[in-house]
Specification:
It is found in: Cell membrane. This protein is α+β, with helices and mostly antiparallel strands and 168 residues long. The chain has a domain of 101 residues. It has 4 helices and 4 strands, in the order αββααββα. α1 packs parallel to α3.
Length: 168
């Protein structure tokens, strides 16, 4: 658990770790895997690839003229600010929630960096079934955001079930 002198913002170290892992893996993909190439990891199930997403989740608005880059960047900045404030206001015993928020923040910052610096998000994880069904390619930032969101949802259900007041 982060030291008390840093308060709940000590959890930002987890966000930094998520960000660094995300950017490190993307750097490796950019350096080692040619664009639009697939490398089979688990035949019929999982590949590494190298694709770009100029849109949001599931390539939402990817075919737009470029304005979406700045819209999604602005959304990520606002959400990141809200997450930092939320982390700062957490109670000492809200570890699960702190991990969830820190994971979402790290992922949001990883994809924000890609959008601002590269103009697109680098995706490289490709889950599929026998070359018939494909889940859209994603990255570690997306994974952290998704896992953090699931943890947030579980925290809300736990809070409601135990009769506690919901987190503000």
């Amino acid at each position: 658990m982060p030291e008390a002198r840093f308060g709940r913002l000590g959890w930002l170290l987890l966000s930094v770790l998520v960000f660094l892992l995300d950017q490190g893996t993307k750097w490796a993909v950019l350096d080692l895997i040619p664009k639009h190439t697939r490398i089979t990891v688990i035949p019929g199930w999982f590949d590494w690839t190298h694709v770009y997403n100029t849109g949001a989740a599931f390539s939402f608005l990817a075919d737009s003229s470029g304005w979406q880059r700045w819209l999604f960047a602005l959304i990520a900045i606002v959400v990141s600010g809200v997450l930092v404030v939320w982390l700062k206001r957490l109670k000492a015993d809200e570890t699960w929630l702190a991990i969830a928020l820190a994971a979402v923040l790290g992922g949001a910052l990883g994809n924000l960096y890609d959008r601002v610096v590269l103009g697109h998000v680098v995706d490289f994880l490709l889950v599929h079934w026998q070359d018939r069904w494909y889940f859209p390619a994603f990255n570690l930032a997306d994974t952290a955001i998704t896992l953090g969101a699931i943890m947030l949802a579980l925290d809300m259900f736990k809070t409601k079930k135990s009769g506690e007041a919901a987190h503000d």
